[in-house]
Amino acid sequence: MTDRRSEPPVRPWLQALVLLGVILALGISIALLRQVIGITSPWLALLLMFDFLGIAKFAEPLFRLAMPGALRPLRPWERGSGVYRRLGVLRFGRLLRDSPLRYLNTGVYLDRGPRDPFRVRLHAESSEANHFWDAVLFMAYIVFAAGKGMWSVVAFFLAVQVVVNVYPILHLRYVRGRLDRVIRRMGAGQPGGASAIVPGGTS
Q1: Over the stretch 97-115, which tens digit does the pLDDT of each residue have?
Q2: Going along 90-192, which residue ranges are E strands?
Q3: Dist CA 67 CA 64 (whole Å)
């Protein structure tokens, strides 16, 4: 049985104030750093990548980013675990769930007892979109670095892209597939609904 109790309400103006404070603090830090290392510095681009994820996360109570319509639906091969297991996505998910990294996405990876699968799916979709748009923006700098012949930066940033954005996207899509199966079972009145919500699991 899932827990459908709503989360404690937070006033929208307070959420907006927190978001504004985060944007202001990050903006000031970026402006100061730019004066030291320059606007085209790879380190500034790396900071912007993480800043974007942070801002998108803080903004979720007010608005959520969305995946492009053509990319949002799960493909048939994504609804099983075979491909994701071969790619190491499930091991990556266990790392997220069993390490302090889970606190970066508590709506999906932090186990707080029985949870509403609809709410968990909402968090998963939002996080997936955050990582997708972050990857798009970060890839723009990778292309810029390639145009400048900065091949060591390109190689390093591609590796960062895979770890920070690509694998989280793949695992969140795997989680969505599992949640879809849970929700279908709930609709059919079958047992095992909430107990099947194990985002970092292997089934």
Answers
A1: 888 888 888 888 876 656 7
A2: none
A3: 10
Q: Structure tokens of 101?
A: 């990294």
- Using CA atoms, how far residue 151 sits from 24, 146, 155, in Å, is 33, 6, 6
Cα distance between residue 203 and residue 199, in whole Å: 10
Q: What is the DSSP letter of 188?
A: T
Q: Which residues contact 182 (CB under 8 A, 6 or more apart)?
A: 117, 192, 193, 194, 196, 197
pTM over 0.85: no
- For residues 138 and 6, give the distance between their C-alpha atoms in angstroms, rounded to a whole number: 35
pLDDT tens-digit readout, 118-166: 888 999 999 999 999 999 999 999 999 999 999 999 999 999 999 999 9
